[in-house]
Amino acid sequence: MQQIIIVAVVCIALMGLFHLPALKWMSTGFVKIVIGALMLFFLNILSGSFGLHIPINLFTAITVGFLGLPGVVALSSLHLFVI
To answer: What digits encode the pLDDT tens for the residues 5-35?
Structure first.
């Protein structure tokens, strides 16, 4: 497990040395995913009494992080109407 992390860090560092816009793009994407996960966390806290619970995983965090409020509405409607 530690070897995979070391290889990933070395690859990102090499990419940053040779192509700076790619590193900026990856960091922006990472920040959006973290913000999406935090939005889902607070949504689950606030809407727990209504029976709405959206699991926090990579797919849902990416959806909410990149789409914002429409992503939250889309995942909520999927949970309420499909599941």
So the answer is: 788 887 777 766 666 676 677 778 888 989 9
Q: Is 16 exposed, middle or buried (0-12, 13-18, 19+ CB in 10 A)?
A: middle
In the chain, where the domains are located: 20-81
- What pTM was estimated for this model as a whole? 0.70
Residue 78 and residue 60: Cα distance in Å, rounded?
A: 12
Q: Distance between CA 22 and CA 54 in Å, rounded? A: 31
Contacts of 23 (CB under 8 A, 6+ apart): 12, 15, 16
